[in-house]
Design brief:
By secondary structure, the chain is of the alpha+beta class. It has one domain (27-210): chitin-binding protein cbp21 (Coagulation Factor XIII, Chain A, domain 1, Distorted Sandwich), CATH 2.70.50. It has helices at 3-22, 37-44, 52-61, 81-84, and strands spanning 29-33, 73-74, 111-113, 118-125, 131-137, 159-162, 166-167, 170-176, 183-193, 201-210. The strands form two sheets. Strands 2, 3, 5, 6, 9 and 10 form a six-stranded mixed sheet that branches. It has a four-stranded antiparallel sheet with strand order 1-4-8-7, with no helix packed on it.
Length: 211
Amino acid sequence: MGSGRVIAAVAALAAVSSVLTAAPAYAHGSMGTPKSRIYTCFLEGPENPRSAACKAAVAAGDSWPLYDWDEVNIGDADGRSREIIPDGKLCSAGRDKYKGLDLPRADWPATNLPSSGTYTFEYALTAAHQGTFELYVTKPGYDPTKPLKWSDLEDKPFYKQDDPPASGQSYHLTATLPGGRTGRHLIYAIWQRHWPDSGEAFYSCSDVLFS
């Protein structure tokens, strides 16, 4: 092989390596504690999940979306989440790809939470970005067997912070739990990136049981 071809081949390999190395920058995250619906189903195994709810999610939207557990997003949300995500599609961020996450069921795997006090949420990430985290909780009287609407959530987040601390593969969101709730509820997380970096936002639904 001539020197020109060797140089071209090396350049091509370098370009491929660069693309592969950059790929993780396009992945992001989802709530890890309490686990989001998509993260739960991913950990159960997309091809053969254990829980009835995750099986139903796969039946509704196939298994392959679960491998993208860190990508329930809208690329240009720019703080307009309530305007651009329709009622009944909050958990999928209005994306058909993730429609299985919107299934209204009372048997989604849930995490036990204390009824009050301080709790540290852990947001599992595959790429860190500057941005604002908001956590919302469903109102008293929430019915998980009905499609989730914006009006089911409290108007204001019980936690909101720019660039919370991160260690390992998680952001750590230390919040005061809202109180006044027992039984099954849902925590809705919005991670809104900041311009000029990006207007992208990520969303997750975590089913919880307040003790």
